[in-house]
Write a structure and sequence with these properties.
The protein is an alpha+beta fold. It has 2 domains: 7-67, no CATH class; 73-171, no CATH class. The chain has helices at 13-22, 26-35, 39-48, 55-62, 114-119, 155-171, and strands spanning 73-74, 83-84, 94-100, 103-109, 122-124, 131-133, 142-146, 149-153. The strands form 4 sheets. The protein has a two-stranded antiparallel sheet. α2 (26-35) runs antiparallel to α3 (39-48). The longest helix has 17 residues, at 155-171. The chain is elongated, with a radius of gyration of 25 Å. 20% of the residues are buried. The structure holds zinc ion (2 copies). Residues 125, 127-128, 130, 153-154, 156-157 line the site of one zinc ion.
Amino acid sequence: MGLFKPKWQHKNPKKRITAIEMLEDQELLADIAKNDEDFMVRMAAYKKLGKEDSQEALADIAKNDEDNLYHIIECGSYACTERVRPLPGLVGWEKVPQPIFGGIEMVYFCPSHVKDGREKSKVTCKHCEKTVYLSDKPVGWDYVHTPAGTLWFCPEHIEENREYISAQWKNFKWPKGEDD
Ligand SMILES: [Zn+2]
Ligand SMILES: [Zn+2]
């Protein structure tokens, strides 16, 4: 004893997670859940304890997590610096569809900017200029890709424009490169 570190102290977090699967000692698990330096390991310990959704777990997981930036979501509002981890129990943040070049992107907004996000989810029918919010899940609205970008159409105008635009594409020639 003492010569070998137990597996749950392995320096590779992945190995620690594997070791946690085998652990039954609740006290030890609770200790790892609170104190392991790696977010994924703490989460694994909470899972093994069956408490991954508890308030306690959320609080512990949320602390000291600069090491796991890839898990963090940022508010989609320009110049907002709110960042958070999208865990169960996260209140006020919302995913709002945003029209982007090429279609729709789901973007998170913080509680103070959800309204802005909804405002920016507005699209306009290229044909009749009717507008709608994508966040209201409008039925029948759709977009088409054109050589000039993404165009939105209302349900009344989407079909005829789809045809018109596919005809445009047929006649469209990609610009030739310099060395062609
Ligand atoms: Zn924000
Ligand atoms: Zn229209």
